[in-house]
Specification:
The chain is an alpha+beta fold. The protein has two domains: about 1-20 and about 230-415, Alpha-beta prism (UDP-n-acetylglucosamine1-carboxyvinyl-transferase, Chain); about 20-225, UDP-n-acetylglucosamine1-carboxyvinyl-transferase, Chain. Helix content is about 30%, strand content about 25%. It contains 14 helices and 23 strands. Helix 12 links the parallel strand 21 (about 365) and strand 22 (about 385-390). Helix 1 (about 20-30) packs parallel to helix 2 (about 50-60) and helix 10 (about 305-315) runs parallel beside helix 12 (about 370-380). It starts with a strand and ends in a 6-residue tail after the last strand. It binds uridine-diphosphate-N-acetylglucosamine. Uridine-diphosphate-N-acetylglucosamine binds near residues 26, 122, 123, 124 and 126.
Length: about 425
């Protein structure tokens, strides 16, 4: 088992290049199924969730291998339409494969993704949209058995702007005859990236980034070479790391337009943030100030995925900051671990109140989920003494090599193997 050892107190200085976006590459990997042709994905991050997607593609009879240029996928050999229960459980966002398999094969069999560490993860909007496109879905007994002799374009309305449902329906609609519109679609940058990929493959998708996405379906898609967008949540994590530890960093490739709500709060807290076409620079000196209430919301609101890392950065701020988590039911599991490091945080329902303390202390702490784990690293950088962070497989789901990047910025952080079982 691996753990991260972090000695706090080093200022961060220097530059790192931001990895490709996990939340962009996962739907794009599902979308490769629609092409039945070779696709080369550049900038694809090496992540546990990407490995799980590769195993799903291979399990379906497709080729997916790392080459020098990136991840080479060829879905010509697709021979199955079902995903095993163990692979479904390995990656909670595996439901994204449903629309693509259905569009390509006319049927799909998956087990239900179920809940995850953030709380329940329903897919009712995905299923309702697929039914509106003409799919018959039997979702009893924890399994999803879907059939569609023919998918037909339809006007779909989402009751909330779900990222996964928007993506799943975009993929299914590519295989449907006629035009589909998705109203109240999610507006995340990753949706724009998926649209760009589909169009690079010969698709006809427009409107991504607005609340209405239109798909002209039924066109044959071909392969392409595509570069995945930079990961805005990884960028937010490193900005928060600099805010926490102090210092001056530059994140090559990061796009401030994707992170405006995060950088606005960091400026309010006292950081200097400046960006250009090459990336984002951030300078932080002295103690931060508390900021206005942070309310998570669908894009372009404050991202729920950046809630934990911003909270970690503000633990030593002057004053009190209120967080309101509106996206997931169980997204404060990192709080108890931060409290072990000396943080003053009170949670009540969806609200967490962070009162800044002068000092944090290194402690043995445990990752509870992906972004919560990254938040422990952010806090540990500002703590006195050493923190030992266990259960870091959560972090590896979304960060290619968190310790490499933070060490490149001057942090004292190493990965160590241990014989002890984690936990
Ligand atoms: C995606 C991101 C995740 C991020 C989240 C919100 C990926 C791989 N993951 O997850 O990192 O935290 O967006 O920005 O891109 N909901 C329903 N019914 C549905 C679908 C969703 O009720 O059918 C609810 C969810 O429970 C949640 C909210 O809608 O409360 C938002 O979920 P959604 O946007 O779908 O998130 P994901 O796509 O799962």
């Amino acid at each position: 088992m691996s753990q991260l050892l972090v000695k706090g107190g080093c200022r961060l200085t220097g530059e790192v290049t931001v990895q490709g976006a996990k939340n962009s590459v996962l739907p794009i990997l599902a979308a490769t199924l629609l092409t039945g042709s070779p696709v080369m994905l550049r900038g694809c991050p090496h992540l546990r969730d990407v490995d799980a997607s590769i195993r799903i593609l291979q399990g379906l009879g497709c080729r997916a291998v790392w080459e020098q240029d990136g991840l080479a996928v060829d879905t010509a050999g697709l021979e199955g339409c079902s995903i095993s229960d163990s692979l479904m459980r390995e990656m909670r966002s595996s439901a994204i494969f449903l629309g693509a398999i259905l569009a390509r094969c006319g049927r799909a069999e998956l087990s239900y993704p179920g809940g995850c560490e953030l709380g329940p993860r329903p897919i009712d909007l995905h299923l309702a949209g697929l039914r509106d496109l003409g799919a018959e879905i039997d979702d009893t007994g924890g399994h999803l058995r879907c059939r569609a002799v023919r998918l037909r374009g339809a006007d779909l309305v989402l009751s909330l702007p779900s990222v996964g449902a928007t993506e799943n329906l975009m993929l299914a609609a590519c295989g449907a005859e006629g035009i589909t519109t998705i109203s109240n679609a999610a507006r995340e940058p990753e949706i724009i990236d998926l649209q760009a990929f589909l169009n690079a493959c010969g698709g006809c998708v427009s409107g991504a980034g607005t609340s209405t996405v239109t798909i002209r379906g039924g066109r044959p898609l071909h392969g392409c070479t595509y570069t995945v967008m930079p990961d805005r949540i990884v960028a937010a994590t490193y900005l928060c790391a600099a805010a926490s530890a102090g210092g001056r960093i530059f994140l090559r490739g990061a796009r401030e337009a994707h992170l405006a709500t995060v950088t606005a709060l960091l400026r309010e807290a006292g950081c200097t943030v400046a960006s250009d076409a090459a990336g984002i620079g951030c300078t932080c000196e002295g103690r931060l100030r508390a900021v206005r209430p942070v309310r998570t919301a669908p894009y372009p609101g404050f991202p729920t995925d950046a809630q934990a890392v911003l909270m970690a950065a503000l633990l030593r701020s002057r004053g009190t900051t209120v967080f309101e988590e509106n996206m997931f039911a169980s997204r404060y599991r990192h709080v108890d671990e931060l409290i072990r490091m000396g943080a003053d945080i009170r949670v009540s329902g969806r609200t967490a109140v962070v009162s800044g303390t002068e000092r944090l202390y290194g402690a043995p702490v445990r990752c509870t989920d992906l972004r919560g784990g990254a938040a422990l690293c952010v806090a540990a950088l500002a703590a006195e003494g050493e923190s030992r962070i266990t259960e870091i497989s959560h972090i590896d789901r979304g960060y290619e090599c968190l310790e490499r990047d933070l060490a490149a910025l001057g942090a004292e952080i190493v990965r160590a193997e241990t014989d002890e079982s984690e936990g």
